[in-house]
Amino acid sequence: MARADEDILYELYIKLGKSAKKTNNKGKTKADTEQLKGFLNRVPTHLLYLDEMNLPQAEINKYLKKAKLMFFSYSTIKNRHPELVSACLANKMDQLVHSIARNEATMVSNFRTQELGGERFDIDSLFVGNNYFKQLLHFSAVEVIKKILNENITFTSVGKTNILYISETGKKYHKKDCPYCKGKLLKPATRAVINNLELTPCKCIKDEEERIRLNDTYRTIFIDESIHTVAWNENGLPGNAGSYSYLICKGLLDDESQITPAITIASGVEYVPEMQHTEKVTKTAIGKVMMIAAFDYDFKGNIKIFTDNKGAMQTWQEEKKNIRIAELFESVTVQFVPREKNTTADAIGRTHMCLKIPIDKYSDIKNKYDMYDRLVKHKDHLESQLKTEETTVAELKEQLENNKDVIEKLKEENSCLQSNQSFLRTFINSIKAWLYEKQSSQVVLSK
Ligand SMILES: [Zn+2]
Question: How far, in Å, is the centroid of ligand 1 from the Cα of 63?
Answer without folding.
Answer: 46
